[in-house]
């Protein structure tokens, strides 16, 4: 919270701006999504989220640097550092996310997630894996880009956590393209691991206020299409983990 005390006017101005953008996003949803027929709702939600994410990231004066071919469909697996990951990835390309069920209760981002058609997973209910896998396949068959954070949690970015394989079954199907990605951040006036990354026992409100005090945020993304892949979930999880860890080394 030191940043809030150091730049109170910046934080207040950006909070007002954020409120305006959320209101704009709500009205935009009515025109771009709510009025669409069901057959086009998925694509409409993804494009709505892309538009909203780009507008919200302007508040943070965010800059993107991307290497590799940005995918448009199939599955994308990526390391996970912060709620900003969702905004940055969706700003680059229209996509659908898989998120842990707790995200539904987050202020602001939980609301965005619901409207964007996010698929929620409850790690305490193993019986949910089958139905959720079916939903993922349905989205992929409609030409969507489905984003999965297989670490199952966020980190400070110093390393990539081992990947969980439970939801990787659709990725073993060669009918769908598969892309590995790594995301990292830079701050001019702060510590990325403590002020951009959202992990451990951090609380959303104070974290967001402090983040709003930062001059600007730079996001680095690398993408690598996975052509040769295992048709077994657990082996594929190890393969994807190795690929993302390699991409992390290029960021450093």
Structure in a nutshell:
This protein has 252 residues and is an alpha/beta fold. 46% of the residues lie in helices and 17% in strands.
Note the gap between the termini: 28 Å
Give the strand tally.
Answer: 7
CATH class: Alpha Beta
| Physical arrangement of strands within the biggest beta sheet | 1-7-6-2-5-3-4
The helicity comes to 40-55%
Could you name the ranges where pLDDT drops below 50 across 5 or more consecutive residues? none
Q: Please, what is the oligomeric state? A: single chain
The name of the CATH architecture is: 3-Layer(aba) Sandwich
Could you state the order of secondary-structure elements as H and E?
HHHEEHEHEHEEHHEH
Beta-strand level of the residues, as a percent range? 15-25%
Give the number of helices. 9
> What best-fitting shape do the alpha-carbon axes yield?
globular
Number of domains: 1
